[in-house]
Design goal:
- Helix content is about 40%, strand content about 15%.
- By secondary structure, it is of the alpha/beta class.
- The chain has one domain: NADP-dependent oxidoreductase domain (TIM Barrel, Alpha-Beta Barrel).
- The strands form two sheets. An eight-stranded parallel β-sheet has the order 3-4-5-6-7-8-9-10. Strands 1-2 form a two-stranded antiparallel ribbon.
- Strand 5, helix 3 and strand 6 form a beta-alpha-beta unit.
- It is globular and about 55 Å long.
- Bound molecules: NADP nicotinamide-adenine-dinucleotide phosphate.
- NADP nicotinamide-adenine-dinucleotide phosphate binds next to helix 9.
Length: about 280
């Protein structure tokens, strides 16, 4: 299977499918990521908050895969939003990963009720990390349309991506549209809703008709919509299943039927970024 690449607004490219390691226990991360690399994944999404950057780095080091064939993302931890802390925290992430650069570095949460509401100086500090090539691209996560608008207007620097919760039960369409209007690609986190969408009747009917699994149909739905995804699994057979989504397509009607499952804010799994304040 060849995973398509998308071009970011800074000219770099990103594999549209990757592997996420949220909730992968630190002591199982190296083995889990090794299995994912063996299954063909070349894009790994981690975060300092997940506590497993070291295991990701160990798997990469042990894989024998050339660094330039891999795309690695990590994210700024919430207690480190002040500009000096951004720089220190980024150094710590590179050390944990055992890498001299990451392909993408994100502000994990905007935290608009913390740090006097100043995520703009955090963004400025993150953006400066591209200067010496240690972060190839930079972006944000969980930014609402007004958060995006503020950082772009006040710094003039476009984030390459906004990584937000998106799955069939929570389309997050306003945040997706705000990104699309500005050339900011959407990364859809929890793409299968942490498993909650897999027993949905509409998705099940499409999957049965196409001879695919509900997970494959859901992941393909994201691909058709142009978003970037990195499903997580601890099971090699599911990693393989989730990777095999490029030998079929969904009709526009099937895409629309899945998009119509959107329950708005009620469909959210994670916290609302407008009020999330855990530091
Ligand atoms: N920026 C943020 O704030 C944020 C927040 C959440 C997530 N993320 C990122 O997005 C990634 C994916 O999100 P997620 O991990 O929350 O959820 P997800 O990928 O939607 O779902 C993962 C869950 O689904 C199960 N699963 C995976 N593939 C399956 C399959 N083919 N059939 C049945 N069950 C399957 C997994 O179980 P097993 O592991 O037991 O297979 C796990 O319980 C994360 O790992 C992380 O990188 C970012």
């Amino acid at each position: 299977m060849t995973v398509p690449s998308l071009t970011l607004n800074d000219g770099n490219s990103i594999p549209q499918l990757g592997f996420g390691v949220f909730q992968v226990p630190p002591n199982e991360t190296a083995a889990t990521v090794t299995s994912a690399l063996e299954a063909g994944y070349r894009h790994i999404d981690t975060a300092q908050m997940y506590g497993n950057e070291k295991g990701v780095g160990e798997a990469i080091a042990g894989s024998g895969i050339a660094r330039d064939e891999l795309f690695v993302t990590t994210k700024l931890n919430n207690p480190h939003h002040r500009p000096d802390d951004v720089r220190r925290s980024f150094d710590e992430s590179l050390t944990s990963l055992g890498l001299d650069h990451v392909d993408l570095f994100l502000i994990h949460w905007p935290l608009p009720t913390q740090y006097d509401g100043d995520f703009v100086s955090t963004w400025q500090a993150v953006a400066e990390l591209t200067g010496d090539g240690r972060a190839k691209s930079v972006g944000v996560s969980n930014f609402e349309p007004d958060h995006l608008e503020r950082i772009i207007t006040e710094t003039g620097v476009l984030p390459a991506v906004n990584q937000i919760e998106v799955h069939p039960l929570f389309g997050n369409e306003e945040a997706r549209a705000a990104g699309a209007e500005r050339g900011v690609l959407t990364e859809a986190w929890s793409p299968i809703g942490q498993g909650t969408v897999l027993d949905n009747a509409v998705i099940g009917e499409i999957a049965a008709r196409l001879g695919k699994t509900p997970a494959q149909v859901t992941l393909r739905w994201h691909i058709e919509r142009g978003d970037i995804i990195f499903p997580k699994s601890m099971h090699p057979e599911r990693m393989k299943e989730n990777f095999e989504i490029f030998d079929f397509t969904l009709s526009p009607d099937d895409v629309a039927a899945i998009s119509a499952l959107d329950k708005g804010a009620e469909g959210r799994i994670g916290p609302d970024p407008k009020v999330f304040d855990r530091v």
